[in-house]
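Need Tetratricopeptide repeat-containing protein's 3D structure for a figure. Predict it.
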Amino acid sequence: MPERSIRPRRVLAVVVLVAGAVALVVSVSAGASAPAVAPVASVPAAHPPDTLAHSISVAQDKLRRTPQDPLTWAQLGSAYVEQARITADPAYYPKAQGALEKSLAQQPQGNGPALIGMGALANARHDFAGAKTWGERAAAVLPDTAEVYGVLADAFTQLGDADAATDAIQRMLDHKPGVSSFTRASYDFELHGRVDDARQALQRALADSTSSSDIAFCRYYLGELAFNSGQVDEASAEYEQGLAADPQNVALLEGRAKVAAATGRVDDALAGYRDVVTRVPLPQYLQEYAELLLSAGRQAEANQQFAVLDGQQRLFAAAGVTDDLTASSIAADRGDRAGALSHAQAEWGRRQNVLAADALGWALHLNGRDPEALTYLDRAGALGWRNATFAYHRGTVLAALGRHAEAVTALSEALATNPHFSPLAAPGARTALDRLKGGR
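Structure prediction for Tetratricopeptide repeat-containing protein:
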């Protein structure tokens, strides 16, 4: 069986918010009340689907009566971006672009809400360089608006400019401490290996949550943080508390299925994933389901999910989304080593962040280029993220290079960080570690 690509956990669609804290460099502390700002077009990260659909309907009705309304066009465009995230339907992205472009056509100068919306759309389509440009233009118009720095934080994070990302998150927190800024702060801490600070930031976000959807959003990421640290019981408790607030939340249902897989309840896990991908066929969920099927020896069913995944990838591409990172991982899962490398190189050409570095390093290994692979895998770990997948990839390459003592350290780190990091790779990591320790 070919080696598989194992994606690091917590890589939902990039529009899912990432990283920080109110005093980001020192600790998470209460901030001053947010200053009044000009109206912006952003939509809350955990916007309830029914409320969002109502907001879209209201905006559409208003624009039918008064089509010359740049602010409402901007708000509608941003709502479409959020609707695409919630539904996993990329058809909303062209709608968002059309609405935002109408807003800018009606008000070409000083249209901060539309600029923010265009930045969010660019991030959602993985055009992070474009998002940075839109965010910088928005900052020139609305320099005291938190949502501007959310766009910039997401873009900088994905482009691999860690210092600029942290600075943008800090500015977001200075202007508007709340769910969106604290969740971004959490991811920034996690990327830098500061897990306790990441958890504290999420707990601050939870404390600021007033809606069931925001509570579910925060509980999901608290669960993810626990799961990625190997704390399955704690993760399960967070997911279940989130589902108590929002029983239909698909991300939390994915978390429940993931826990079932980690605790050996494979049938429950497969049933859970089947439900999840039926509700929201996000590429991440489809790939996780396919990998679980492969780990259970159900190749034909896994192939069916890969076929669905191919279709979803084509739909996203047609809507302007570029995602060679996922494409590289899928290609590796299917034994297409050349494809894995081609996609990883394309992704690295657009952004040099830790995820792209890990993907390229792993793809190089799959193609027998281990010295080069290690260079990128070292770069993937440079920020200090305690990521079991990164450690597994690095340990595998070190073993291939004959550096067995270092391989033992890296593989041990992977399993100590999260012994359930992948239904495909974790068992292989244990086998490889036993073999290396036995000197065989």
